[in-house]
Amino acid sequence: AMLIGVGGIGKQSTTRIAAFVGGLECRMIDIVRGYGLNEFREDIKNFMIQTGVEGKPTVFLFTDSQIVVETMLEDINNLLNSGEIPNLFPQDEMDKICGDMIPVCKALGVPETRDNCISTFITRSRENLHIVLCMSPV
User: Fold this and answer.
1) Which residue range or ranges hold the Dynein heavy chain AAA module D4 domain (predicted)?
2) What pTM, to 2 d.p., does this model score?
């Protein structure tokens, strides 16, 4: 979803209420001093693991004030288009995800090959990670 309105109109509150009504967890990133693209990608990894491996429906609330580097928008665009960010997970982390996805694949009746585990992970991430962009026209 994309919510556009001037500050103080209730974009974040509306998102939180909608997430609560839908039974989803609403999460934001915390911008602190030194927060950059690497920290953003670590947060996205955590969201994807939470939604893909653990299967927890989650709303990722992202506001225009949280855009530190424009590459963040490119990453969100990739998530919205394909459900993944290319080369986000290094090989060792992807191996761990595949290992964690084996019981999930078994439960779904999907053969537990590496490709099926990755595909199921991405599919579950796409189904469970809901991105809400809150922007100001100013």
Assistant:
1) 1-138
2) 0.89
